Amino acid sequence: MKIIRAKDYQDMSRKAANIISAQIILKEKSVLGLATGSTVLGLYERLIHLHNEGELDFSNILTVNLDEYVGLPAQHSQSYRYYMDNNLFKHINIPYENTNLPDGMAKDIEKECREYDDLITGMGGIDLQLLGLGLNGHIGFNEPATEFPKGTHCVTLTESTVKANSRFFENENEVPKKALTMGIKTIMSASKILLCVNGKAKAGILKEVLTGPVTPAVPGSILQLHPDLTVVADEEALSEML
Ligand code: GLP
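Above: inputs. Below: predicted complex with GLP.
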């Protein structure tokens, strides 16, 4: 595991974007696993900037996102498809058909999950998976549990996650209670993982994830076992580590 210390959010975003840029430059047909949330917004802005400067070409990149809410159509302003389109895809030269998210509106959820895993396998697996960290240690939407879920599956979100994500909705009742997410096996199969964490609120959980026991009660702790994990975190998030 490599831990890269960033001064603040901007610095974390720049460093993480540089790592993704290096991946794209080294392999122009990379499969990128992408994440949503506020942590990664700054790094998407930075990737857009690098693209506008003519430094990054996304025309051969394939993307697969970690997760999507169940029951929100793509046009809903809080769906992860909407987030990705508006915060990244629309602003770079990636062909729309190269971008993939689980379909939270699928009639047959089981089938959708199986097909999402098959899609990733068909692409030859993920070269670099970007991750944020939930306040309860979740990655993607793999919530604390008694065992590590394997493939893409449907989860019931914990109360704390619904609460944390309600800041984006009018009120807590509007937050979907279910989501589709890549499983832990899918995430751990990525060749490289890039975990970004910022802010004091995540200092305690980041310490648990990186130095505590590996347990499904703290889903992110499994990342300790990944052979190529890079953590880019700001000083506040790392404040309980030393
Ligand atoms: C959300 C997403 C995760 C994200 C995490 C942290 O619920 N499903 O993919 O990494 O929670 O979000 P944020 O970066 O906004 O703190």
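Residues 132 and 196 are 5 Å apart (CA to CA).
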